[in-house]
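ok new one. same drill as before - structure tokens go in, u give me an amino acid for every spot. 495 of them this time. try not to just spam alanines like last time pls lmao
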């Protein structure tokens, strides 16, 4: 390491922690060079091991599976789809029985581990019922190792010793214990990286003061929050030059991705995770879609396209076949040919990848060269999705002209390519009405409204929902949740 490359804080570097990070990073980097078949076999092997571990070490799973007629001897070969699905309500009710470590219930009704070496994250409780999830030290090490993999898989800038110390600017609005804050605090700071956070509930003037001379080389946060940083940069009030940007917490639009690249000139890593599983996968500015990391989770989808995952490294709190409300578009399991999805949502993607040529070169002649034999053009040997289409709770429900309930998914309208359109938000205003609020480029208001009205009307007619009223509105800003700082896809104001 070059002299002066890393300014060591008082107390010195945690050599063991740093060594653990480097080892984990190399391990997961090497996995990215394996064949899809190798990754699939690895994932399925770890899945079976976790099944047996959960049966032998928790109070919950033996009785949970017994209700479906499944015995321990069945776990080696039972089809995953035969195993019952976990939901947040089930976890909330059975937290102590799922945990393999001691837990205590606080006066606020929350659970926390009674010993050291286990960390807790909790969902926000937007439904009024927060839920707690625990993670072992080995799980966090695996996540941190994946960050090493993420920041170096392609892109224009390879992170090396010259980039230390990492100076990270975090733009969001969340409290202590949420997943992204947990990762920031227990990850970067653990290795003596420097970090500052800005909160969307604070005035932008205070952001300038906080950032000041910090000069971050990493930016992380919600896309809607980072857009505020971009506005400050474009107006000349901010002058920062990050090498990497990690987005997450909400979908990033193609327009936002292009805008951030133009403004900051950095690689973008679109972190896809959740409080329950921390890291699920990632998209980027150098390939299309999102890869789900099969060496971290065993991934499936149900008939509605909702993601079901099994954690492969968290023995403190085993989550097996936990179902999210996230709906996957173009789900292609590792080792399967994308061509086999012809006629499905992902059809036609075979030639759409625009990845870093250097990454392809490095994979040529290695295990990754075998990808072409599968009919896939994916550059990484993992499960691929075109995008997260949205969440189940984002659906807009109405009664059609025959009085039967039916829904509109924001994706149906979000895919409309109206020139000048930046971002949409759907506002349910009544039992039979909604608005589509649009952020548009200056001078595009009339054309966007005209095209959007025609397309939305066609969608409603195709679903026999001619009775549903709507309005297209061009607004100066979209509704932002004051508690989380996020811009939700849908907002309900019907009562």
């Amino acid at each position: 390491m070059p002299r002066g490359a890393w300014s060591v804080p008082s107390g010195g570097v945690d050599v063991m922690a740093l060594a653990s990070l480097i080892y984990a990073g190399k391990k997961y980097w090497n996995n990215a060079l394996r064949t899809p078949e190798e990754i699939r076999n690895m994932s399925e092997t770890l899945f079976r091991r976790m099944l047996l571990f959960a049966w032998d070490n928790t109070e919950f799973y033996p009785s949970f599976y017994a209700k479906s007629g499944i015995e321990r001897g069945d776990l080696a070969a039972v089809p995953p789809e035969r195993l019952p699905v976990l939901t947040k309500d089930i976890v909330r009710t059975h937290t102590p029985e799922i945990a393999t470590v001691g837990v205590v219930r606080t006066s606020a009704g929350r659970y926390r581990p009674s010993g050291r070496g286990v960390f807790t994250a909790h969902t926000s409780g937007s439904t009024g019922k927060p839920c707690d999830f625990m993670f072992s030290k080995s799980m966090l090490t695996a996540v941190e190792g994946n960050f090493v993999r993420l920041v170096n898989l392609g892109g224009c800038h390879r992170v090396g010793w010259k980039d230390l110390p990492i100076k990270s600017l975090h733009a969001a609005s969340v409290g202590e214990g949420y997943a992204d804050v947990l990762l920031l605090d227990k990850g970067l700071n653990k290795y003596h990286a420097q970090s500052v956070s800005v909160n969307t509930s604070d005035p932008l003037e205070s952001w300038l003061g906080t950032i000041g001379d910090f000069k971050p080389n990493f930016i992380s946060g919600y896309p809607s929050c980072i857009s505020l940083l971009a506005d400050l940069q474009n107006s000349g009030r901010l002058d920062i030059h990050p090498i990497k940007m990690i987005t997450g917490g909400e979908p990033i639009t193609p327009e936002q991705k292009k805008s951030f690249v133009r403004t900051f000139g950095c690689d973008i890593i679109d972190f896809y995770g959740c409080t329950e599983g921390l890291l699920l996968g990632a998209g980027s500015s150098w390939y299309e879609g999102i890869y789900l990391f099969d060496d971290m989770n065993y991934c499936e989808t149900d008939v509605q396209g909702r993601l079901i995952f099994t954690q492969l490294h968290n023995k403190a709190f085993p989550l097996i076949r936990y179902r999210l409300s996230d709906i996957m578009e173009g789900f292609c399991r590792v080792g399967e040919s994308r061509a086999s999805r012809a006629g499905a949502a992902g059809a036609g993607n075979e030639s759409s990848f625009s990845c870093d040529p250097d990454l392809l070169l490095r994979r040529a002649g290695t295990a990754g060269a075998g990808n072409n034999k599968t009919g896939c053009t994916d550059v990484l040997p993992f499960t691929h999705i075109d995008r997260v289409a949205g969440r189940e709770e984002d659906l807009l429900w109405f009664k059609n002209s025959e009085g039967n309930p039916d829904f509109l998914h924001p994706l149906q309208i979000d895919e409309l390519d109206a020139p000048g359109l930046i971002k949409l938000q759907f506002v349910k205003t009544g039992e039979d009405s909604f608005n589509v609020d649009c952020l548009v480029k200056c001078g595009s208001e009339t054309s966007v409204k005209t095209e959007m009205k025609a397309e939305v009307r066609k969608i409603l007619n195709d679903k026999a929902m001619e009775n549903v009223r709507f309005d297209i509105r061009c607004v100066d800003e979209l509704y932002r949740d004051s508690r989380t700082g996020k811009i939700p896809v849908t907002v309900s104001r019907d009562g």
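Residues 1-12, 175-179, 340-378 have pLDDT under 50 and may be disordered. and btw The radius of gyration is 23 Å.
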